[in-house]
Write a structure and sequence with these properties.
The complex is a heterodimer of chains A (about 220) and B (about 50).
Chain A lengths: L5 H12 L2 H4 L15 H22 L3 H4 L1 H30 L8 H23 L4 H17 L10 H30 L8 H10 L5 H4 L1
Helix pairs in contact in A: 3-5, 3-8, 5-6, 6-8
Chain B lengths: L12 E4 L2 E4 H19 L8
Antiparallel strand pairs in B: 1-2
The chains are: A mainly alpha (about 220), B alpha+beta (about 50).
Chain lengths: ~220, ~50
């Protein structure tokens, strides 16, 4: 049924691309039980903790963690969840690189994952600049020359605390979360990438297959 | 962490030709490689084939 309403067209396209059983599957292929497949969801779990702890820190302001034990606790949760996020994300990246996860029309899945990693780096960097201590002063004064040399210093001034804080608590996290959502939806659409077939199995299949012209001869 | 590790000293670096990196960073990378190898080699408990 064709319709002129844009909302109906968007809905139809969305449901066609991601039917409910693909969007929220209750089964995965058996190879997903391998340990190397858990690092994507571990990265995702770390990101949830980062956003939750970061939201609490944002509610109380950037200096809160300096003078209260509770603030220090949430700051530590935020720091260590970021450490784990990068730890898991790098292993996830290695695993997907060595299994060539862009196979089978999954190029956009790979690209969104790589872009997330690249955006997460300045996201964490602006966090270091938002600490409001000698560490953040040292990092910003050391980084300014490299940033200026790269030519983006006019747009991204690491000595401007307000700008770095805005980047850290809103612009970059919003971008990371948006691309991660796109990444997950693309994984749902295309399915989890299968491992390479073992060479022995490939050779066995090739040996048992009849020649291409066998049918025409019989 | 500061209570567990004594941080009141000069930082230590691994230096080999052009390669220079702080020892804690080297340790984290080695741990990541170990976890990566374990994830590939060890089957998850309950995994059926």
């Amino acid at each position: 049924m064709s319709t002129t309403s844009w909302t109906a067209r968007v809905r139809e396209r969305a449901v066609a691309a991601l039917p409910p059983d693909k969007l929220l599957p209750d089964k995965q292929p058996s190879y997903v039980t391998s340990g190397i497949y858990i690092f994507g969801v571990l990265s995702l779990a770390s990101l949830v903790v980062i956003i939750a702890s970061g939201s609490i820190l944002a509610l109380k302001g950037p200096a809160w963690w300096h003078f209260t034990g509770v603030g220090h606790f949430f700051n530590s949760i935020h720091l260590w969840s970021v450490e784990l996020f990068f730890f898991f994300m790098v292993i996830h990246l290695w695993g997907k690189y060595w299994m060539a996860a862009w196979r089978g029309g999954r190029a956009r899945v790979w690209i969104t994952g790589a872009v997330t990693f690249l955006i997460a780096i300045p996201c964490a960097f602006t966090g270091y600049l938002s600490q409001q201590n000698f560490d953040s002063q040292w990092i910003s004064t050391q980084a300014k020359d490299a940033i200026n040399a790269s030519g983006i210093g006019a747009f991204f001034n690491v000595l401007n605390f307000g700008q770095m804080y805005s980047y850290h608590v809103f612009l970059l996290p919003a971008l990371v979360v948006a691309i991660v959502i796109a990444h997950i939806l693309l994984v749902r659409k295309h399915g989890v990438v299968p491992p390479f077939e073992p060479r022995e199995l490939k050779a066995k299949v090739a040996a048992t297959e009849p020649p291409a012209d066998a049918e025409s001869r019989s | 962490m500061a209570a567990i590790f004594n941080l009141s000293h000069h930082p230590s670096y691994a230096h080999w030709h052009f390669f220079q990196m702080s020892v804690p960073n080297v340790i984290v990378i080695v741990v990541m490689l170990v976890v990566f190898a374990i994830a590939i080699l060890v089957r998850l408990p309950g995994a059926e084939r």
